[in-house]
Design brief:
Layout lengths: L1 H19 L9 E4 L3 E4 L2 E9 L14 E9 L4 E9 L4 E7 L11 E10 L16 E9 L5 E7 L1 E2 L11
Antiparallel strand pairs: 1-7, 1-10, 2-7, 3-6, 3-8, 4-5, 4-7, 8-9
Amino acid sequence: MFTFVQRMCVFAAAGVGLFAQSTPVVPASDARTSGMIGIVAGQNARLNALNVGVPSVATPANAVACTATLTFWDGGGTLLKSLTVAVPAGKNMYLDLFGEADLALGVLDRREIRGTITLPPAPVSTTSTLPTPCKIIGSLELIDVSTNKTLVVVGVGHDLPSAVTVTATP
């Protein structure tokens, strides 16, 4: 009987060890991109993030602000400019990329750019009520510096594949 109990303990310990080696998957962030757009000297690009969450009329303090990272990339995948913002419900935040000041574009220069908006993974709730997910609508504007008029607007709605972080438990 004692030998049987010893063997059961060994198998139980081995099973716990195998369970500890499992690799839980961490939720991936939500990332969206615009298409490519060209920018020249005399133009600026503005990446907009609108939090369409509606603040509660009864309790406006309960309105959810969404954290988002606004980023500009060039056609070669080089990070040009980035900013993390907290976008209040029903409001807009933006990041500007200045053709001359940020990119040092000359008269004959042109640069292909795109904008991305990344939301962090939703927190895992330990209560029975689930947190309200953030809903951000993005757009990328190209603006003429001399007139301050918007020349073109591109949506930021194409899903980016995201790498899933996997952690091993010892």
